[in-house]
Specification:
single chain; 170 residues
Length: 170
């Protein structure tokens, strides 16, 4: 059972990295005039992992994805921004998933995770640039987190629906 979980975590990490790479192919800034806005496709994997795996596995997948993506296609600042955004998003989604069905759906969890990711990235920017002026960019990012978080949530919901057809016990 342990080797199955490790294998699954490795596959999900690889999928998240591939989705991060694929995301670079979509020129979202041509459609949305807000620099730095991304679809957040790798967050589908994080949300999926939080719903189907122990939270420590989801955290390990996130940390591996952030580190490997930064090594493959990023920089120190990209690593810092992704780490802050990813960890804050993971924590918020984890907390909200515990209350799912009471006041928050999977789509709401996803939107909150997207918003938390943006807050984390702006926090990283404030620390890195040593100025709070970058926080003025946050309202635009939060506005974009609603439609993009919905896309992420809908994608995860579709994946979860298909996974019910497969024996997926970990």
């Amino acid at each position: 059972m342990k080797s199955k979980r490790i294998t699954l975590c490795g596959l999900l990490t690889a999928l998240a990295i591939v989705l991060s790479l694929a995301e670079r192919l979509f020129p979202l800034d041509a459609v949305v005039p807000v620099p730095g806005v991304k679809l957040g496709l790798a967050n589908v994997v994080t949300l999926f992992a939080l719903t189907r795996l122990p939270s420590r596995d989801a955290a390990a997948i996130l940390l591996c994805r952030v580190a490997l993506s930064a090594l493959l296609m990023g920089s120190v600042t990209a690593f810092l921004f992704s780490l802050f955004g990813g960890v804050l998003s993971l924590l918020v989604m984890w907390a909200l998933l515990r209350a799912e069905g009471k006041f928050c759906s999977l789509l709401g969890v996803s939107v909150a995770g997207a918003a938390a990711h943006n807050v984390g990235q702006v926090l990283a920017a404030v620390i890195w640039m040593k100025t709070s002026a970058v926080a003025s960019y946050l309202p635009f990012l939060l506005l974009m987190s609603v439609p993009l978080g919905l896309i992420t949530g809908l994608t995860c919901a579709a994946a979860l629906a298909h996974m019910k057809k497969i024996d997926f016990d970990v």
